[in-house]
Every structure is written in C-alpha cells, then in structure tokens.
Amino acid sequence: MGSKAVVSILLMVSLCGTIFFTQGVAEMQKPPTFPGLFPPGSPVDLVKCWSSLFNVEGCVLEIAKSIFSGKFENIEGACCKAFSALDANCWPQMFPLNPFFPPLLKDICARIVPNSPTHN
User: Fold this and answer.
1) 54 Cβ neighbours under 8 A, 6+ residues apart
2) What range does the record give for the signal peptide (predicted)?
3) Sign of CA dihedral 72, 77, 109, 93
4) Which of 23, 46, 76, 107 is the 20 to 30 Å CA partner of 98?
C-alpha cells in the first residue's frame, strides 16, 4: 500500500472521528444563554412587555423603523400610548443594546400624544 493511500485513510478516519465527536459534544451541551440580556429568574416578563406593543397593529414595525432610521415622525398615537404605558422595568430588557432609545421615544411620544407621561 502506497504512502498516499495510508495518508488518505488516516485523514478519512480522523475526519469521521472529529465529526462524530463534535456531534456528541454538541448533544451534551446545554444551549447558550445571554446573561446580560435574559438573566434567569428575571422579574420582568418579556412576553408581557412586548405583547402590549404587538396588540397595536404595526406598532413594533414603526418602532423598529424609527430605531434604524432615526426618524420618529411616523409613529402613530396608538403606538405612543402603548409604549408610554410600558413599565420602565421592561425597557432595559426590551432594548438592551440601546439604553437611550426608550427615554427618547417616550419624550417624543409625549409631544405626539400630549397627555402621555414623560420619562422620569
């Protein structure tokens, strides 16, 4: 048997072994968690926080567009009312990458809907 054949067989065996080993290790590991984003036992229910925005048609899309474009003039009053009614404890969990966005949106919503509370 030539040296090329031996190298090919060893390469094939090592590749198969690596594939089966990594699959076995992957099954043993638990899925990754993001401790900063969703800490275990968090008192804030993210489903409850987001559901109030999802209940207003197009609200989540309007907020997403305003995040990426920086333009807030397209947010409607119903969406502002829903956002203004959110518990302030929801904000860090809902917008962990931009902590300045919720107070900014709440201040803008106070102008769109005059009787909505401003951010404290």
Assistant:
1) 60
2) 1-24
3) negative
4) 76
